[in-house]
Amino acid sequence: MTKFHIAGEFSDSKSGEVTEIRNPATGEVVDTVPKGTEEDARRAVDSAHEAFEEWSQTPPTTRGSFLYQGAQKVREAEGELSILLTQEQGKPKKEAILELRRFASTLEYYAGLGVSIRGSYIPLHDHNRYGMIIKRPIGVCGAIVPWNFPVSLMGNKIAPALVAGNTVVVKPASTTPLTSIRCIEILNKTGLPKGVLNIVTGPGAIVGEELLRNPKVRKIGFTGETETGKHVMSVAAQEIKRVTLELGGSDPLIVCEDADLDGAVKAAAVGRFFNCGQACLAIKRLYLFEKIADPFIEKLIERVKRLKIGNGLEEGTIIGPLHTQKQREEVESQVEDAQKSGAKVLTGGKRPTGSEFDKGFFYLPTLLSDVPDSGKIVQEECFGPALPIFRVKNLEEAIEKANSSIYGLGSSIWTQDFSKAHYAAERIEAGYTWINSIQTIYDELPFGGLKHSGLGKEHGIEALEHYLETKSIVIAT
Ligand code: NDP
CATH 3.40.605.10 residue ranges in the chain? Predict the structure, then answer.
């Protein structure tokens, strides 16, 4: 059993109950974790609360040095950690390595940003008085993380929180706690004072809920479904807690008639099928200018048919299983709904056959045409390997369709004409627009959605600001 960490110690749940963590490719039990209770969450919050005073007075560069050392250790352990991440989440090992490197680079980025925390001196209109604006940490922060990128999305929360001087309690998704616990253990071994960084496993409705309600928790960083995000916001409002919400997305990819077609085809395939389509930033709607639609679709079908599906630990696997049975059933129901409304399946549209797929939640990468705009797969977030393809007459129509979603997370446009790209980038309602590229996240650039995709930013100096309070001081001389 992998125990959770409270006050730097391995800990069991008070309940004595455990949760089995199963491999989505094989159904085998990978390990078990304690099934935490409200009381466990309270213990973790209390330990973070006790550690706060000393940690908040520790120089930011010293705080950053722990993150930096932790990042080095995670990089050294990436071989072992990536196997564990693949086993619990299902993603191909290559993608697991990328995720761990992303986590390490976020720790390093914020380790360096410690030196940038600063306030200011303000001359006042009263005689013999001046003002100072200082930045202070907020207090105990709850980090609530989903299962699709359990480690990197945890890093987005703990790195700015810790370097800003806050203490943290992490609540990982119930199905993917193992690699996160190992990473917290590695970080704690760098000598972080006890209680600064804690992790408690257990159901969202119990452990997560306690973080939302406990008055000692002053900020919640949450990534997950939009519906859960609304709940987080409304409960946090009772204690006027700060919240950062990274929620669902339905990112459009627009390909204009003058685009580099081969580049855009590759972008569509990677953008949709990375992590088996289970990414908030995945390409979920493809808009093709009519003139290039036929050759584009032909090339895309050919490329998608070549994607190797299988256990993420096998060499050459590009597409692993979906994370859970429920996740697969949701994608199946969205594809069925589209078919009932007249959509054509261009490739995929079913589970793969063969004994190697029997015990896992596999689904073939799927392309659909003739999907009505009212289809579930267009209106809802499709969190799996299926892509609806649409034809558009011009840029105005493409932008209008791109903006027709309740979501506004990422977006991408492919064209050789930079003024056209810039025109679209200013009008597409999304927190990120990639021009002639997709999905790459940079620590330096703020990331976060508009509309139902979220509130606040992760990454960049902007995220550090979300973990600091601004305070004014008046000095009479
Ligand atoms: P959920 O919203 O179901 O869960 C996210 C986290 O919240 C989990 O740790 C979950 O715990 C916890 N949780 C659930 N209920 C509560 C509650 N009442 N109080 C506090 N915490 C709770 O999302 P998924 O795990 O299904 O993640 C997939 C979703 O995340 C997708 O919709 C995706 O778009 C979105 N996402 C958004 C990203 C972004 O940056 N915008 C990035 C990645 C994903 P438990 O596992 O125990 O239920």
Answer: 4-247+453-476
Give the pLDDT mean for 308-333. Answer: 98
Spatial neighbors of 298 by CB under 8 A, at least 6 apart, are: none
User: Nearest C-alpha to atom 8 of ligand 1 is from which residue?
Assistant: 173
pLDDT in tens, 58-80: 999 999 999 999 999 999 999 99
The dihedral built from the CA positions of residue 79, 85, 88 and 89, taken in this order, carries a sign that is: negative
Which of 223, 326, 406 should be mutated for ligand 1, with most atoms under 8 A from CB? 223
CA of 144 to the centre of ligand 1 (A): 7
Of 78, 88, 108, 246, catalytic: 246
Instruction: For domain 251-441, give the CATH number.
Output: 3.40.309.10
Question: Catalytic annotation on 38?
Answer: no
> Among this protein's residues, is 256 annotated catalytic?
no
**Regarding the domain delimited by 4-247+453-476, which CATH topology (the fold level of the hierarchy) does it fall under?**
Aldehyde Dehydrogenase; Chain A, domain 1 (3.40.605)
One of 210, 280, 330, 382 is an active-site residue; which one? 280
**Gap between the Cα atoms of 439 and 281, Å rounded:** 6
Q: What is the pLDDT of residues 267-311, one digit of tens each?
A: 999 999 999 999 999 999 999 999 999 999 999 999 999 999 999
CB atoms within 10 A of CB 11: 20
